[in-house]
Amino acid sequence: MTNVGVIFEQLKNPPLSPFSKGGKAYRQSFIHQTSRPLPLFGKEGQGEICFEWLKPNHAVAVVIFRVLLLTVALLSVSLADVWAHDDQRPAALREVGFDQKLDQRLPLELVFRDEAGKSVRLAEYIKEKPVILSFVYFKCRDLCPLLLDGIVRSLRAISFDVGNQFDVLTVSFDPADTPALAAAKKSDVVSQYGRSGASVGWHFLTGDQSAIQKLTESVGFRYTYDARSGEFGHATGIVLLTPQGKASRYYYGIDFSPRDLRLGLIEAAANKIGSPIDQLLLFCYRYDPATGKYGLLITRVIRIAAAATVVLLAGFILLMLRRERVASGYGRIL
Q1: Same domain as 76, residue 22
Q2: What gap in Å lies between CA 281 and CA 279, rounded to an integer?
């Protein structure tokens, strides 16, 4: 029977599965009848499909092996180029970062200048409320405006008010910035925020190189200056400070979760602000320093759900007992 005949015969009368009785004999005979890889169909309901292939062609195998070797070589060269390029990055970019120094107290004795040019100490702004600390330079045209816009958007999304429950401190890390530039930036930001009291709670400071360096080092803010372009390389983020001047939380980027900010402010204020719902959220969420966000603690959520279930069951049982007593008393009266 020709190969085509074998195929049609196979389709008309499928043989047993090669894993059932008779399958092995069929497989052996089928191999001798054709030189092409054809499927062996199982009986209806058995579901097995097997393929018997030709003996490997050594020439084809050699070609495939060479192609694989060439591919691996090209990938190795590409990765080497990437690593070499990474190692050759400018030192200025390698030094940029924002390291977390949680629970470290800031040097509150440092002296800066406010928007009016008056000399002030950090201790005058960090004493009674939690403070959001941010670093910008007022001549920046890229990241700094985006950072300030992100702070404003996030703060407008929470019910706490700047100047009431907390304050904001924006410090320039460019010693060339002047109080006039600080005043102009403050006017724009406070107007964008649009809540009363912000002008007395949001401060824009400038200072000399020594004070700036000590403050930025105390919170892990690392930046560099490019003399050719006159611009700074820096990271973006904010630091949440306690009323004692300790770094409590770090939030990175230019857009911040209002929920995370609210929970961080409550914790930084030692739970002196916020509602009972906020306290419940703090029980269910925990700050993760690696990500700078609050993550859900599923075990605590389960505990709360279990406690609520017990309370509901106890209430239901008491209600049923009370109804039964009332019904029993009514029956005796009758």
Answers
A1: no
A2: 5
8 A C-beta contact, residue 249 and residue 266 = no
What pTM value is reported for the model? 0.62
Residue 26 located in a structural domain: yes
Q: How far apart are CA 156 and CA 256, in angstroms?
A: 11
Evaluate whether residue 289 is within a structural domain.
no
| Lowest-pLDDT range of 58-67, 87-96, 178-187, 243-252 | 58-67
Query: Tens digits of per-residue pLDDT, 139-176?
Result: 998 899 999 999 999 999 999 999 999 999 999 999 99
What three-state secondary structure class fits 136? strand
Between CA 98 and CA 234 the distance in angstroms is 9
Give the tokens for residue 309.
């279930």
Per-residue tokens: 96 = 């940029």
> What is the rounded average pLDDT for all residues in the chain?
76
Helix 143-156 and helix 179-193, axial crossing angle in degrees, nearest 10: 40
> Are 184 and 246 within one domain?
yes
- Within this chain, do residues 105 and 231 fall inside the same structural domain, yes or no? yes
Task: Give the end of a domain, one of 275, 296, 313.
Answer: 275
Tell which wins on pLDDT, 156 or 316.
156
Sorting pLDDT into bands at 50, 70 and 90, what band is 46? Answer: very low
Report if residue 106 sits inside a domain: yes
Distance CA 250, CA 231 (A): 25
Is 84 in the same domain as 105?
A: no
The neighbouring-strand residues paired with 136 are 172
Q: Which of helix, strand or coil describes residue 37?
A: coil
Determine the structural domain holding residue 129 and report its residue range.
Answer: 97-275
Beta carbons of 257 and 293 less than 8 angstroms apart: yes
What's the average model confidence in pLDDT over 223-229?
A: 88
Total domain count, the chain: 3
